[in-house]
Structures are given as structure tokens and as C-alpha cells.
Here is the input.
Amino acid sequence: MKISFVSVVTTLVTVAQAHTYLSHLTIAGTRHPEGECLEPYPKLRNRPVLFVDSPDLTCGLNRTKSASVKSCPVQAGTDVIAEWHHNNDSPSDDVISASHKGPCIFYMAPAASEGKGDVWFKIFEDGYDPSTKTWCINKLRDNKGKIAVKIPPSLKPGDYLLRGEVIALHNADAIHTENPKRGAQFYVHCGHITVTGGGSEVPKGYAIPGVYKYTDPGVHFNVHKPFSEYVIPGPPVCAGGTSNSKGTTGQTKPPKSQASSAPKSASYATSSAPVKTSEAKTKTRTKTKHSKTRSPSSYQTV
Ligand SMILES: *[C@@H]1O[C@H](CO)[C@@H](O)[C@H](O)[C@H]1NC(C)=O
Ligand SMILES: [Cu+2]
Here is the structure.
């Protein structure tokens, strides 16, 4: 009896391994923890934002004063490696639950804006690849939480905010304002980088909150029923940005239902190089235990 009780408790603890947070940035081989490049976290750092119109969507829940954060230099055109973890900033820590399917998106904004106004431009997006049936979150898990994000080569030098985002869609067949226990989950945090080199461009910006609506096809999406493509929410990536999803780049069109088809061709296609790092080498993917289609109700509402 005691043994089976223990095993039930262990199962529950495993299921709770669910959320994620941006634990550090690695730039030119230097690993920068929280407080250096990354804004400090509130008490509960791995919790998602659930309201698309909340000020928390800018840089995460309960953003604390960012002035003390050391901005980290990055050469334009080079990669920042962002690393996500569930509990702590250790390479062996869990990344995010396999049940959490969804895209990864990065934006930048001039630092002087503090993230307010029409200032955010999308520099990176990776959604769903139908040919491999792989989400960006699957790649994150396979790559120990790491993702390489190229800073656009033509960006004007200066101080910027870098906003990392992972969207988990396991409950996204519901809209959060209609069902307070469900909805898409936005794992969001901001870093401070100083771009060196580069050119003279500051791409057109958009407001965050403002880039997403509850009815966007990439925000209101059912991962538990068959689908062939996924449209990443938000604006298209900026010039020199990176889009790793075929035919499903960010869009600002009016919302469509999941049943209607997403744009068939991509206009960004040749604009960028694919993600480097060991992610590209991860050819064989083991099937996760959550990969079978299950009814949404079998997932916890985290
Ligand atoms: C944000 O602040 C509220 C009020 O103090 C608190 O209840 C909540 O847990 C905080 N959230 C995080 C993610 O720390
Ligand atoms: Cu979670």
C-alpha cells in the first residue's frame, strides 16, 4: 500500500514539470545569467501570461525595475543563444513538459522605449514544421532548452530590449477569457543587449500587448486534433530576421478559423539562414510519450 502511494505522488510531481522560463543568454561564448542581460524575475519565474491584452505580455509577469540590468554587447548578424529551463539555470534541468506544443518567437525594441508603444519588431520565429511534425518546443526539449537567435545584420547599433517568448498551446483550443482555466500560455521574458556593428535600420515596430488577439489562428488553436499547418501569430519577421517555419510565417491578416487554410507560400523564404547550433544536428527524434492525440481534458490546466 505504501509503495503504491509513493508511486502516485511521484507521478503527480512529474506531471507538474510543466512551465518554463528564459534562464540565460549566451553571447559570443559568454554565459550571462539573470541580472546580466536578463531582467530580474518575480518570485514565481516560470509562470505563463494568459491575457493577450495584459501589460505583463510585454516582458513577463510582474516585471521588476529593469534599470539595473547590465546590457550585453552583441555583434549584429551573430547569434544570441537563449536557454530555457523549468526550475533552475542548470544545463541538466528539465526544459518544458512534452505536453506543451507551440512556437518560439523573439522580438526587439529600442531600450529607451522600455517596451512601451509601437516599438517591437519580430526578429525570429519558429513554429511547426509539417514535414517533420516538429514544433519549436520539441526542438527546445531536444536541444536542452537552447535556441540560437540571429540579430539582424543591418540593425542600427545601440541599446535594445530582446524579448523571448515560448507559446504553449496544449490548452489553446479554448480562449482564456471564455474559460479562465484554459487558453494559450505565453512564457515571456526580456533581456538587454547593446548591438554593435550593423547598419542603419530600425524596423517598423508594433505594440506588445497588441500584436496578438485571442482569435488569432495561432493563439486559438487545437493541437489535439489533426492539422497540417500552423500560422505563427504576430507580424512578419523584419528584414534580416529569421523564420524557420515553412509557409506559416507571422501574419497580420484578420483571424481565420483553424479549419480554413493558412497562407500557402511564404514571402520571407530566402531572407535568412536556418538556426545553427546542435539543434540542426538533432535528426532522430524520439517520440514523446505525450505525442498521441488525447482529449484536452486529460491535460492539467496549468
Ligand atoms: C505577481 O504578484 C502577485 C501579487 O503580489 C502575486 O500573487 C503573484 O504570485 C506574482 N506572480 C509571479 C509570477 O511572481
Ligand atoms: Cu506549464
